[in-house]
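Sample intake sheet
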Amino acid sequence: MPHPTSPHPALLFPSVALVLVFAIAPLGCGGDGGGSTDPGWEERPTTLLPPWAEGCENPHVPVVMVHGFLASGDTYANHVMRFVANGYCQDRLFVYDWNSIGGGNSPALLDAFIDEVLSVTGATQVDLLGHSAGGGIGYTYLSDDARAAKVRRYVHIASGDEDAPPGSAGGVPTLNLFSANDRVVTNDGIEGATNVDLETADHYEVATRDDSFEAIWEFLNDAPPAVSAIVAQEEPIVIAGRAATLGENRPAEGATVDIYEVDADSGQRRRARPRATFIANAQGYWGPFQGAPDTHYEFHITPVSGRSVHYFREPFLRTNTKVYLRTLPTTGLARVLVSALKFDEDQPTTVIFLANRALQPGDQLLLDDVDLSGDAYTNRDNTTIALFFFDDNGNDETDLTPVALFQTFPFLAGADFAPGADPRVSTVVQLGERRLAMPRRPAEPDGVSIVVFD
């Protein structure tokens, strides 16, 4: 895969100031009479990092994780949970977001981020992970000796072939994690690195599967992890994240984030008033919110300008500080990514997002009574993780005609879908035995509704 200085066209879609004005402070925690939803985490002075902290300290080397094209820090949400389950503090785990479309891959930006991590944690080095195009960023960053000195070990994940580990004379210890089943990049091993082939993993699973974590943990800690599955934790479960534009990861400063508890079967709100409300800060961070286990939530984000987006997620098993709420870009190249979407008064605009793997042959996917299990959506070669459905033909009939724009990109699929808008009625999405529901809100004025399978 080319370095991010020259991205492959097919991938163009998928001083420390006190920012502690704490613009992400909750406005309505516990407002429905259900008790406090504020976990009481600490506020800390930051410029680029989240301005909340768990207040946990341990000697682990901080980990900085870099995502790939069209992605965000939530690529690593599962691995962050696994690190914590094995003894890391939340406050030692960081994700670096970059503009994957508009040239935001300067090593100086990553260097400033790492410098702040070192300042906040008091550490002298970090461990660095890079997935896909994030691996190219990692190699570019480590090409400078002064920057490489800040990195103890490096993990190259589902990224391109290299001649040697990064740094002067290949001096940075490197784990090269790849898969023969990856249909996006080719990697046959890096001479001088620790090479691990996950064999059956797709491009995203190389960064999300449990065996991916096992390899990363053992490389960073010289011993196997105690646990690699995502296991439920005892309460409290804390939820936080970031609001940013799709693809560009521009902070959605000032966006309103309303969190509602919803009925598991219908996706309808249990109460009219949100459980909590946050305003995203200058870097887009919002939270933290103390959630409940076995509970379905809707995250409704309303940007200062542009359309709102409703996210419906599976119940949280563990604390998750990497809940990303993407808004639709209204300017720039990223706007092309959403230019095909329609926003009708009498039809919904619906998205299905798989956060940790692509659709695969044999997957059973249903959108209401529409079977999406065929090759058009589950073909391995397309590595489909996001599917868009709306009345593309404008005839108020569902015919599943493919949306032309999405056919030109990997990772994406789209089709004509027109069930009719009625917010009292629910659309149900089933992925195997997993099920999520959401109201059929009209896209005009209610925006996009997205189900997220973690």
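Comment: The chain has two domains: 43-221, 237-453. The domain at 237-453 is CATH 2.60.40.2200 (Immunoglobulin-like).
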